[in-house]
Fold Calcineurin B-like protein.
Amino acid sequence: MSRSPVFIPLIGIIQSVVLSFTACFDHHLPPKKLQYTIDDLRKIASKTLFTVNEVEALLDLFKKLSSSIIDDGLIHKEELKLALLKTPASDNLILDRLFALFDEKKNGAIEFEEFVHVLNVFHPRAPLEAKIDLVSLFLWFHAVAFRLYDLRQTGFIEREEVSVPVFLL
């Protein structure tokens, strides 16, 4: 049985309609291309203390980090863990907090502009107040983590206290 010439285009049209309709329900963001023009880099630099050359160097670093596991133009938590801890699988409360600090939009991934914005705090010409705020945030987090493990409130974390999983508290 041979297919008629009209039937083949009809299948193509139906496939196109079905695929277009199902794409409406796809919640995945398309890969973010890291194609920045010199004007884009100037705009980013104008909002920070970085020069255009420094922003360009940060873009190169960002590209390396964001493609280490998933090449989608975003830094995911596993990629940050891989870069800092040399393993994407381990749990680390401090790294989780660091990731949350960089993920300003709270969408589960770090975009290039967020990356540059947070690193701006570490710039040598950054205001001391911004650096103090960041350090205060980390000290607060460490104090909370310490209190979670110091179950006997002795001011020391003893071997037995470390073995108690935090999720049981």
About this structure: The CA atoms of residues 147 and 153 lie 8 Å apart.
